[in-house]
Design a protein that fits this description.
DUF523 domain-containing protein; 2-thiour_desulf; 4-stranded parallel sheet; single chain; 164 residues; alpha/beta; two-stranded antiparallel sheet
Length: 164
């Protein structure tokens, strides 16, 4: 009889980090590592862009957090779209049993440690994006593209725990 293999842990990944051109400027960040590319090839990386899912077009004016609001460089309040995208990300994680996310640092949706200061000066500050904040409130661990080794360790630990 064949031994059952534990289910591989899946990760929610910012679509722009998987090469999809969904950023505000219509670009992607490209696949940031061979490891991430392999995760995608294994079907373990679920690409998601909260801003596009929330109803914003690509390209779109740059937006930054200003407290709880998200405002574009043109002064348009896009908080409802950002909040909706965050809720859709959480719903996807719940539906798929996802406990880990790899999100784009600096983004007003996805930033996990730093976001732009809300003045459109290109200056970052300590903070987190709307999607990151919501996922963390629901015990989903969020990592940035600068934390790939930490994410790999967390996935390995989860795999070990699932196998015991």
């Amino acid at each position: 009889m064949k031994e059952a293999r534990p289910t591989q842990t899946r990760v929610l990944v910012s679509a722009c980090l998987l090469g999809q051109p969904v950023r505000y400027d219509g670009q992607s960040k490209g696949i940031v590592s061979d490891w991430l590319q392999a995760l995608g090839a294994e079907g373990r990386a679920l690409a998601f862009c909260p801003e596009v899912a929330g109803g914003l077009p690509t390209p779109r004016p740059p937006a930054e957090r200003q407290g709880e609001r998200v405002i574009t460089v043109t002064g348009l309040d896009v908080t409802p779209e950002f909040d909706h995208g965050a809720e859709l990300a959480l719903a996807l994680c719940r539906r798929e049993g996802i406990r880990f996310a790899l999100l784009k640092e600096g983004s007003p949706s996805c930033g996990s440690g730093r976001i732009y200061n809300g003045r459109f000066e290109g200056v970052s500050m300590v903070g987190e994006g709307k999607t990151t904040a919501l996922l963390r409130r629901h015990d989903i661990q969020v990592f940035s593209e600068d934390q790939l080794p930490e994410l790999a360790s967390a996935l390995a630990l989860a795999a070990t725990a699932a196998g015991s």
